[in-house]
Amino acid sequence: MNQTLTAPTEYLADTCAFHDKTYAAGYGHVYPESHVIRCYHQILRGELGIDGSRGESLLDYGCGSGANCAFFFERGFGVYGVDANEIAIRRAQQRLAGIADHFAVTPPEPDAERTWFGARFDIVFSNQVLYYFSNGDLRTLLTCFARQMPAGGILIASMMTQRHYFYRHSQPGTDGLRRVALGDPNDPDVFHINFVDTKDDVAQRFALFEPLHIGHYDCCLTEKEGSREHYLFIGRKRT
Predict the structure, then answer these.
(1) Rounded to 5, what percent of the chain is helix, strand, coil?
(2) Three-class SS of residue 128?
(3) What band does 29 get if pLDDT is binned at 50, 70 and 90?
(4) How far, in Å, CA of 150 to CA of 27, rounded?
(5) Where do the DSSP E strands lie in the chain?
(6) Which sequence spans correspond to the domains of the chain?
(7) How confident is the model at residue 5 (pLDDT cuts 50, 70, 90)?
(8) Whole-number Cα distances in Å, 98 to 73, 75, 77
């Protein structure tokens, strides 16, 4: 797959630089996250009858080092993954060496005409990624997803809520974004988040897809940090 990598806009450049730093320091999930496993067993397999036994195709947008991809691959899905981070993609290719050509670096800026792998995807999955995009860029990206999905294709995506502790460290930006600064006040880690407040906010952002479920999950490891609440959207491409 050929993708031309161009310089991202300023807000995406900040976020890419933050993730370059974290991946260079060794970041990357080894195991699939619990809400991903629950979503598969309860919703995909249990409710929708999508268990991977028919080789359903799945695109993991923002796949990181491939932990969630490996989970779905082991269950029979035809897995593909893209990420803007080169280190992450190399690790995913090493993890799933037999399908290394199913992983690729993708430009961070959305393009409604972009195609990945020349494939159609029964499921597009994006865990803790889409909230890094402005309202306009998110609409473009979702249009791109929908164009590569059949009627009735399933989207699974998470969005960070305003209850997440990052919100306390943010300032208003533009087009739905807030600028988050963490760490050393003199040299902070800076990135940009499109926070949501209510389920209606989530449904509005994903209007190309009919909501099946809008759930949520949370985790608080230390009192210093606080909530890590996310909404989890599961929807079907509208016909």
Answers:
(1) 35, 25, 45
(2) coil
(3) confident
(4) 34
(5) 57-61, 78-83, 103-105, 123-126, 154-160, 170-172, 178-182, 189-193, 209-217, 230-237
(6) 10-237
(7) very low
(8) 11, 15, 14
Q: How confident is the model at residue 238 (pLDDT cuts 50, 70, 90)?
A: very high
Partnered with residue 117 across adjacent β-strands are: none
Residues, the chain: 239
* Location of structure tokens 């599961």: 234
Tokens found for residue 19:
């993730």
State the alpha helices, DSSP H only, in the chain.
10-24, 34-38, 67-73, 86-95, 135-147, 199-205
The correct CATH number of 10-237 out of 3.90.950.10, 3.40.50.150, 3.40.980.10, 3.40.50.1580 is: 3.40.50.150
Q: Look at residues 224, 204, 9, 200 and name the one whose alpha carbon lies nearest to residue 111.
A: 9
